[in-house]
Amino acid sequence: MLDRIKLGLNHLLPKKALTELAGWGAGKRGGWLTKAVIDLFVWFYKVDMKEAQKPDTASYRTFNDFFVRPLRDDARPLETDPNLLVLPADGAISQLGHIEDDRIFQAKGHTYTLEALLAGNATMVEMFRGGEFVTVYLAPRDYHRVHMPCNGILREMIYVPGDLYSVNPLTAQNIPNLFARNERVICLFDTEFGPMAQILVGATIVGSIETAWAGTITPPREGVIKRWSWPGADEEGSVVLLKGQEMGRFKLGSTVINLFAPDKVMLAESLTPETVTRLGQTLAIAHQKTSAEEVLHHP
Description:
By secondary structure, the chain is α+β, with helices and mostly antiparallel strands. The protein has helices at residues 2-12, 15-26, 32-45, 63-67, 114-117, 122-128, 169-174, 178-181, 292-296; strands at residues 84-86, 91-98, 103-107, 110-113, 132-137, 145-147, 152-160, 184-191, 194-201, 208-211, 215-218, 226-229, 240-241, 246-251, 255-260, 265-267, 276-277, 282-286.
C-alpha cells in the first residue's frame, strides 16, 4: 500500500515546482536553521561525515554546500591499473550488462531504447548498439560528485529536457522508460576504450546538474534540447579529463548511466544489481584498447 501511495504521488505532485522550490531553499544561507536542516539530514540518512574534508556541519553556509561536499583526499583510493576503468560515483548498481541491440534493461519487465535515452541521436545510437551499460543510483546519503572512469576527451554534450520522476529502485521497477523520460545531460567522450557516454539523469528535488567544464546546465529548464561540441585534444578549446577527475555533480541525488561500445570493455564480475559502489573501485576491464594516438587525433 505504501509503495502504491509513493508511486501515486510521483504522478500527481507538481515535480518541477517542488524541485525549483527545493533548489531555491538549498541555496539560501540560513545560519542556525541551515545547520539544523543539515544535522537532521545527516541523522536521518546516516551520512558518514568522517569522510568529508569538513566534517563539522557548521562549516557549510548552505545546504547545497553540504550536499556537494568534497571528500578527504584519501577517502576513495583510485585503481591505477591503466587497463581498468573505475566506478564514477558512490551509490549502488541499479542494473548493468549487455545492450541487446538497442535495448537497455531497466528492471524486471522494463527496457528502454538507446534511441529514447539519447534523444534520437542516430550517430550515438550506432556507437553503443550491442555494447555495455551500467546504471548507478545515488541515494541522498551518498557523495554527489561524479568522476571519470578513465581518461577522456569531451566531444559532445546534450541537454535533454524531460520529466522529474524520482529515480530509485521502486520507480525503476514501476515507471516505464524512466531514465529516457527524465531530464538528463548526455556527455560523449573519446577514450582509449572507444567512445563512452556518461549520462547524468535528473529527478525530483534535483535542483541542479553541473559539469566541471560548463558549470550549471540546469536550471534553467526551458523545455528545449541543447547541444554543444568540442574539438579534439590537440586543438584549442579542447576539454581533457583524467581518470578519477571530477566531471560533474548533482545538487540532490540521482542516477549516472555509462554506455560503452561493443567489444571494448568487460564489466567487472564483482558488480551485480544492488552492489554498493565506491568511486575509484573497478568498473570494467579493457577488452580492446584504442591507441593514445587515435584518441588524440580523432576528428
